Amino acid sequence: MFDNLSNRLDGIVKRLRGKGRLTEADVDEIMKEIRAALLEADVNVTVVRSVCNRIREHAIGATRSQALDPGQQVVKAVNDELVRILGGETLTVQYASKPPTVILMAGLQGSGKTTATGKLALWFKSQGRQPLLVGADLQRPAAVEQLRTLGRQVDVPVYSDPEDPILTAYEGVEEAKRLGRDVVIVDTAGRLSIDAEMMEQVRLISGAVSPDYTFLVIDAMTGQDAVQTAEAFHETLQIDGVILSKLDGDARGGAALSVKEVIGRPIAFASTGEKLDAFEQFHPDRMASRILGMGDVLTLIEQAERAFEADQAEQAAARMMEGEFTLDDFLEQMQAIKKMGSLKSIMSMMPGMPKELKNAEIDDEMLVPIEAMISSMTAEERARPQIINGSRRGRIAKGAGVEPGEVNRLVKQFGDMQKMMKKMGMTGGGKKGKGKRG
Ligand code: GDP
Where's the SRP54-type proteins GTP-binding domain (predicted)? Predict the structure, then answer.
């Protein structure tokens, strides 16, 4: 996500950092590049104009000030602008003093609204809440069934009445009160494009349930249309926040960078994949750092905390340093890393990760044969891979469906890794686990 924009801005930032002095001609040159980068990323023209004006003002200020590092000041101005147009602060959900807190989901058909409804329920559960899902999308025949499936997956009850969407929404809130559920998320019907009848229905539903929050789901892949969609929904519904879906695609990201500026409402959540936990709160400051190639360490740590059991990670790290790390530990760590998200998304959040690596096609499938090979080994082989001889190698390869040469390579790489860890351990590397809960 935002890959192209990130690549271009990263290049500008790198050059700026080295600059001792900055002339007005430099500023003109930089502004031309920033404008081109934003336009290419599909950011709305009006937004580009106002953003560039503000950055330019800072940049000109930097050429005149006696500051030591004017380049750094411009980088800061770009960063501040990105944070601003991405919405400033992270949205904090204020729960209704008299439960349930009602959330209304709106959006076009195919935007990922139903998926986001399920994901949001899981997110509320992670916040210690007990949500109830309401299926008021009676337009798309399979929508309620899809919601029921999602409900089962996240273990959250689903209410729906096939008779009438408005009644369903109203009754859904009553049902939540009866069941003592403290959050209600109402999925509503979308259409392929903005349409008066759909707007009227969602307006009536909104009137029937008086939502505490109305979230608009926008598909990041739709580009500039997203801005018009957002404007139309905002006119009817008073949107409180946007849920940006499909940020895992090759979207240029411009929609994300325009919606806040146009409707004045922040992006609240980002949906980054088909899996239910591929969903996170949107943090403008972290996203800006990610775009500028400064990494997103905080999100990485949060994901690690979710994926690793603290003790398990600490023990593994200790064993690692003592050179007692086995293939079993290796497999366990690999599985935990996989839980954090795709390898590509993890790499994209690491600060200082070279662009070539970030953009390399890293396929999670690459882990599959490694996992299969380790699973085909006996406990003894995992603990002491050096005992793997020709016949054992043949057996493991057959079990994992790979060539014996691959088993050899894994054992050798693992041996090298073990040696390296032992060395690091002896030279006094710390023993702290990285997944420790703070
Ligand atoms: P709705 O019509 O708005 O309710 O859309 P759905 O929730 O049914 O989503 C439409 C399609 O987009 C489905 O195939 C989803 O699996 C897919 N989808 C939803 N969110 C995401 C996402 O964040 N990333 C990806 N890659 N696909 C998504």
Answer: 266-279
